[in-house]
Amino acid sequence: PHCFFGAMASMTPHTFSLSQVNGSQEFFDAISTVKQTADPTEVQNLYNYLINYDLGNVIDIPLTYYKDMILYNTNKIAGYEFSGVPTFFDVKGLQPVA
Question: Which domain holds residue 38?
Fold first, then answer.
């Protein structure tokens, strides 16, 4: 699952809600630290903590979705080349009918 930690510690709609969760200050501090740390072991430990805290407190709910599926009008579009990022549609991947 994707967990976007960077925005959680700034003034977003998440901030007030998260501040009410037990242990949230440690969570916010870990987000700040991981963005400033170059030590790979510390980064790994921080992300392990962040992901477990995030999913353990149901902050982000991992959802299942289909990858590489698209429907299109074959009279207008000949095909589509997928970018490898399933949640983003890239118009450059469209192949028009000749």
Answer: 6-56
Assigned token pair, 60:
């982000």
In angstroms, the CA 82 to CA 70 distance is: 9
49 and 16 within one domain: yes
Whether residue 46 sits in one domain with residue 25: yes
Is the same domain home to 16 and 43?
yes
Examine the domain organization and report whether 39 and 20 are in the same domain.
yes
Query: Per residue of the chain (98 residues), what is the pLDDT tens digit?
Result: 456 676 666 656 666 777 788 888 999 899 889 989 999 999 999 999 998 888 787 666 555 555 556 677 888 888 888 777 666 677 788 888 88
Burial class (CB in 10 A: 0-12, 13-18, 19+), 27: buried
pTM above 0.70, yes or no: no
* Helix (H) or strand (E) run with residue 51 in it: helix 40-56
Cβ count within 10 A of residue 47: 14
